[in-house]
Automatic annotation (TrEMBL):
NCBIfam families: PRK05581.1-4, rpe
Family from the record: Belongs to the ribulose-phosphate 3-epimerase family.
Role: Catalyzes the reversible epimerization of D-ribulose 5-phosphate to D-xylulose 5-phosphate.
Keyword Zinc found: yes
Domain of life: Bacteria
Source organism of the structure: Devosia subaequoris
Gene Ontology CC annotation, any one: cytoplasm
Gene: rpe
EC top class named in words: isomerase
Residues forming the catalytic site: 39 (proton acceptor), 177 (proton donor)
Protein name according to UniProt: Ribulose-phosphate 3-epimerase
CDD domains the record matches: RPE
Molecular function as annotated in GO: D-ribulose-phosphate 3-epimerase activity; metal ion binding
GO biological process terms on file: pentose catabolic process; pentose-phosphate shunt
Pathway listed: Carbohydrate degradation
Length: 227
């Protein structure tokens, strides 16, 4: 029998108001986020630059929720300890970011953190077959990484199902990131995911009074609850 971990909603602070980042992290945590998704981009692995470990560390004190750090950087290994010391709980590296994925995953666990591996849309699930027991989280990218606000790639649903089959009964989160909304959340969860990242769908308008309702709407849609 396949055991799926509990549903988690992980707002991406990439879509937050950076001028008020600490307050935005606190607001999203109080609004019901399960994980805080932190997108780190280097302008090399992806065509955009966001922020690094010092900025993440500066807002770490805003909540004690799990910091789910998505590294879109290459190389990754020289920076892992900065993110671990800076307060990351889960550190996810891309399978495409370097030739030694197994070493990177082991390095994250040696730092006492949960190790995640992310797959770009063009990378097959088979790329992580031989490291699946070294992972605590698998992240299926449902857009090409680099920017918030893109549309969900429909083929991702097949890939999520393949990743779920690979994970089987292991205690591993299956996360989906990119273009997640209340409209596709149910299909994503039915395909086998349990962690939904959403940036623009939650932070739209940067109005904290709407965050709890946006998170609740996605959570209810994902569970098939009629509201
Ligand atoms: O990793 C990312 C982009 O590379 C972001 O987490 C993702 O795009 C979230 O934003 P949105 O929900 O607006 O698509
Ligand atoms: Fe992300």
């Amino acid at each position: 029998m396949t055991v799926t971990r509990p549903l988690r909603i992980a707002p991406s602070i990439l879509s937050a108001d950076f001028a008020r980042l600490g307050a935005e992290v606190q607001a999203i945590a109080e609004a019901g986020a399960d994980y805080i998704h932190v997108d780190v981009m280097d302008g090399h692995f992806v065509p955009n630059i966001s922020f690094g470990a010092p900025v993440m560390n500066a807002v770490r004190g805003a909540t004690d929720k799990i910091f789910d750090v998505h590294l879109m950087i290459a190389p990754t290994d020289p920076y892992l300890s900065d993110f671990a010391k800076g307060g990351a709980d889960i550190i996810t590296v891309h399978a495409e970011a370097g030739p030694h994925l197994h070493r990177s995953l082991q390095a994250i666990r040696a730092l006492g953190k949960k190790a995640g591996v992310a797959l770009n849309p063009a990378t097959p699930v088979s790329a992580i077959e031989h490291v699946i027991d070294d992972c605590d989280l698998v992240l299926v990218m449902s857009v090409n990484p680099g920017f918030g606000g893109q549309s969900f790639i429909p083929e991702s649903l097949n890939k999520i199902a393949q990743a779920r089959a690979l994970i089987g009964g292991r205690d591993i989160d299956l996360e989906v990131d990119g273009g997640v909304t209340a409209d596709n959340a149910r299909a994503i969860v039915q395909a086998g995911a349990n962690v939904l990242v959403a940036g623009s769908a939650i932070y739209a308008g940067n109005d904290p009074t709407t965050y709890a309702e946006r998170i609740r709407t996605i959570r209810h849609a994902a569970t098939g609850m009629v509201v």
